[in-house]
Specification:
2 copies of one chain form a homodimer.
Chain A (H helix, E strand, L loop, with lengths): L2 H14 L4 E5 L15 H6 L6 E5 L4 E5 L4 H8 L5 E4 L8 H8 L5 E4 L6 H12 L4 E4 L20 E2 L2 H4 L3 H14 L4 E4 L2 H8 L1 E2 L12 E5 L3 E4 L7 H9 L2 E4 L4 H7 L4 E5 L6 H9 L3 E5 L3 H7 L3 H30 L6 H13 L4 E4 L4 E4 L23 E6 L1 E3 L2 E2 L2 E6 L5 H18 L2 E3 L4 H13 L10 E3 L8 E6 L12 E4 L2 E4 L3 E4 L2 E11 L2 E8 L17 H18 L5 H10 L6
Parallel strand pairs in A: 1-5, 3-4, 5-6, 8-13, 11-12, 13-14
Antiparallel strand pairs in A: 1-2, 2-3, 7-9, 8-10, 10-11, 15-18, 16-17, 17-20, 18-19, 21-28, 22-23, 24-27, 25-26, 27-28
């Protein structure tokens, strides 16, 4: 079936169900960022493979909204289909809500599957439709249409992390969450998000691509906790350990019936942006429950890593640094020998070197290897057969990361693979300045992500260049590579605290020309107190040389140059004990101080 | 009477009125920043002369809260009295609310004059007292105690600005405010703030020190507007002009009775932070009124200057720049000749030069001239007889500004008056870097004052130095030298727009050692649109050389040095046509490019 045929089928199924259109989102019952394939109907129907989109099919047309990371990719993948690619956030482009208001008329009904959409989103779309007298109905017309090819729900082996990994027992975490519930005036918490649940119960599996989580729900009260997971997935010893921590087990499918039939009065803390609409409705319609809207306290708790986690994360970055150094040597050798390399070769080269490291078990996301203009697509993924050859000029951008038994990594380097243009060198230098200005920032402990974000953007803004994404995101611990609540981006109001980790990944993306990104993970650390207050700063966690060949050294300020040289000294000193003599010699050269 | 005797009298009067304590604030019925002396009871009773403080007298003690600008001054002025000086915001120092909760016990009552306190503040204090079972009563026990010495209400000549000055008629402004009221779902607006009222009705007088405003209220509905001002203060022609614009006149004292007896249904927009408690109560208790809490729309409207105002403001800064150049030459000459100068001499020297300029009629605030360690007190005012001699070493900080018929200015320069220490040169250079990084910022049009504030603080934060105040504030047009809603400071959420003016005044304040501040006014201007969005930047309004003698030029980055040299070229080229040959030669030297 072609994309247009699939859209026609959606349209027809909506009509058969008494509706006039259908909305699909890249979303699952757990508001996951990376979906189990079981839930990726949007990709199957539209052909769009990016991680975030919304598809609306109306009687007369269809449109797909993609965010700034995916403008170029969305345009390419929708070309030749009836679907209009909408650049969400760009000037003159209607929002999904504006489109719904305009396209649906009085008496019409839009259908969507409420179990796979956050309650807040459903409410927003309903309000937009009601402006035109149209309605929204929670109905899943999509599942039957792709039942034959739809992947099953994942069912991978589950395990529990140990306190040596996490630095805290499940009992301690339950107590911490209960204390937060009391502060919020709540007595219960529904946990739909898999990364929150994983942190709370030390539970890991391999249900999601690149994200070692298990598909499950939890429901926590001040004196009980129930994990809802498919029967038989936990080893007996793990189930017993959880039981000892006060965690009971029920089947995954029992979650909504459990909520609907719960009969003890509870004040349930719910986050409308992450609770799916079916969950939210089940709580709201149960008279035993009072809904208390607020932030899931687990998000804030797990965002600040404890000392054990931090020690593990630091070790993880040493291992990842060694693998990256070896990969970079492999790449350099291949290029020097003139071996024909394609973008899709890079992922395997990275995996080969990570596999040599103890504790590595997966990538933390599908590696991005993008040569030349392809790198202007921020989240490009090279598909074998449809990818570019790495030609001996310009840049190769490589964004990748690993999952280890001691942490999760995320790193981007942009390598010159031959002669560079003046613009390429300027852009590279400015991105490096942005990266460094974020990394070397010293700041008071009242700073939010929005306030800090301007440190990174300043050097690029000076040239009227911006990147259409955040400067950085939190990183989970043996978990999702993207994690909140902190982030470096406009309007983020979370105040930074020691123990938070964050990526620092400014970039330049000039469509059809060039893409450059330099990314380290940083740890927010205490920098002492004086008469002015409590100071914080960042320490780099990532330990991989930043290519200095493209740098226009005269553009760097003294402090920027000093940071770069100190970073490289630190990389060398930390990695050298784990490297061979050859590798050490190579790294010494790569980390040699840059001078004017 | 000594301060302690005055506090004892307050305590006794409170007891006589059935209360147990009294609270005084530097506040008037209009939430003015600079009070008519008529309202400055706090200074008379406590001896504290700063612009912002709260005094609490309890049966057992008394305490005065001052903000970061006044820590040093407060400590000095409260020394030897029973009043404890509280550094508001410093670690371990209780807030006024915490103090009230702790000091007052069940059944006790705190008295305050609700006509001179914002409603939001009264509610906050009441809630704090209620935590301990104590109460708050709106009663003025203070007025009788100082009636003999209390200054009368001001009654200075009123005038109306012309459209050539303001660029908009009163009728146009009334229409703009009414449009905002409709957007906010309101039908009426009480205008307690004198600067808002001055903007709305083009009304100016000299009622407040350094601030050309008239003490009055206004009440605006969708079809009527009434100005409440003491009878006879307006010239007949002005009253007629206002009547023609649809503005009726009533006596100042009729304002509260008018609100209490108003009998047409209105939804009144009120801002609890600026409406005094008596006003708020009058509206809330009148059944004809519905209170709609929200921001006074005039604040946002007047914060963005129109083209006529901007042209006048630019002219104003040329005149002010000429006056400042001549003052600086006078100062330099006096120092070179070894004339004994005291801090208190500076204000007169400045005024003598400003008086030569057309349209100058007042200072915009009491000039700060602070030598050496005195400059560590951010808002120090040298009192003749109690001021320092300007010794021939270290810095002299001069913060001052003028009121002209074409605008209001605010400028700070810090002059080396002899040999400097290494620290003094370093601090000066870092402050200059902070100033420049704010002034040269290029940013997207979503940036708030909090996001931009970090641009200025970055260079000082790098050395773990901060200033305990905002980086900058808006400046009124022939009005208050401090005006919102925009400001450069933590937590300010106002988005910058072209036409806003702002000061850029970072500083270093090391108690008992040194104070350095470099302040220009900046205009926010459009910097064009490209694929990334709408860009904004700042252009300096202030046209006065920045002393380069103390600068450690190697600390400046290339772009910082380029900004400084371009600014100085601009200062010279703009001022030169109004200067004599001698003055031009002096200025050419002062604005000569700095090189490494």
């Amino acid at each position: 079936m072609t994309t247009n045929e699939k859209i026609a089928a959606l349209r027809q199924a909506a009509r058969a169900a008494g509706g006039h259109g259908v909305l699909l989102m890249t979303s699952d019952p757990h508001s996951s960022e990376y979906l189990p394939d079981h839930y990726n109907a949007l990709t199957w129907f539209s052909g769009f493979t990016g991680e975030n989109a919304t598809l609306v099919v109306t009687p007369a047309g269809s449109a797909l909204w993609v965010d700034g990371r995916f403008y170029v990719q969305g345009d390419k993948q929708m070309a030749g289909t009836e679907i209009e690619c909408m650049h969400a956030g760009a000037a003159g482009v209607p929002t999904v809500e504006e489109y719904l208001t305009a396209q649906f008329t009085a008496g019409q009904t839009l259908l969507l599957d409420g179990s796979c959409a956050p309650a807040a989103t459903v409410e927003k779309y309903r309000a937009a439709l009601e402006k035109s007298g149209a309605a929204l109905a929670d109905r899943d017309i999509v599942s039957p249409l792709w039942a034959d090819v739809r992947p099953a729900l994942p069912n991978t082996p589950c395990e529990l992390l140990t306190p040596a990994q996490t630095g805290a027992t499940v009992a301690e975490k339950l107590a911490a969450v209960r204390a937060e519930l009391r502060k919020a005036g709540a007595t219960a918490l529904a946990v739909p998000q898999l990364d929150c649940l994983a942190w709370l119960l030390d539970l890991r599996a391999r249900d999601l691509p690149c994200t070692p989580l298990a598909v499950a729900f939890a429901f926590l009260t001040l004196d009980a906790c129930t994990l809802f997971i498919a029967p038989g997935r936990l080893r007996e010893a793990d189930a017993a350990a959880l039981a000892e921590s006060g965690v009971a087990l029920r089947g995954y499918d029992e979650f909504l019936p459990f909520l609907r039939s719960y009969d003890k009065p509870e004040t349930v803390l719910l986050e409308k942006s992450t609770a799916n609409y079916a969950l939210y409705t089940a709580v709201e319609e149960n008279p035993a429950f009072t809904v208390r809207l607020g932030s899931d306290p687990i998000t804030a708790l797990k965002g600040v890593k404890n000392e054990t986690e931090l020690a593990n994360i630091r070790e993880c970055h040493i291992r990842d640094g060694v693998a990256m150094v070896r990969f970079e040597m492999d790449l350099e050798k291949a290029l020097a020998e003139g071996r024909p390399l394609r973008e899709s070769d890079i992922e395997g080269m990275l995996q080969a070197r990570r596999r040599e490291q103890p504790g590595y078990f997966d990538d933390s996301f599908a590696a991005i290897a993008a040569w030349g203009p392809n790198a202007a697509m921020m989240h490009y993924h090279a598909e074998p057969g449809a990818d570019a050859a790495i030609e001996p000029h310009g840049f190769l951008l490589v964004d990748n990361g690993g999952q280890y038994d001691c942490g999760t990594t995320d790193i981007t380097r942009t390598y010159p693979v031959g002669p560079l243009t003046g613009d390429e060198r300027r852009y590279y230098t400015w991105v490096l300045q942005s990266h460094i200005d974020m990394a070397r920032a010293v700041f008071l402990d009242y700073c939010t992500g929005f306030a800090l974000d301007t440190f990174a953007r300043g050097p690029l803004w000076a040239h009227k260049i911006n990147y259409r994404c955040g400067t950085g995101h939190g990183v989970g611990f043996i978990s999702s590579v993207h994690e909140g609540p902190q982030s470096l981006r406009p309007n983020n109001a979370v105040v930074f605290k020691p123990g938070m980790t964050i990526t620092d990944e400014p970039g330049v993306y000039e469509t059809d020309l060039v893409g450059i990104r330099i990314e380290n993970e940083l740890e927010c650390v205490d920098a002492g107190e004086n008469q002015y207050g409590r100071w914080l700063r960042f320490e780099p966690l990532t330990l991989v040389p930043i290519d200095t060949a493209p740098v226009l050294v005269d553009e760097l300020s003294g402090p920027q140059l000093a940071w770069l040289n100190a970073y490289h000294r630190h990389v060398y000193e930390t990695l050298a004990p784990r490297l061979t003599e050859d590798e050490k010699a190579w790294l010494a050269q790569k980390t040699a101080p840059l001078t004017r």
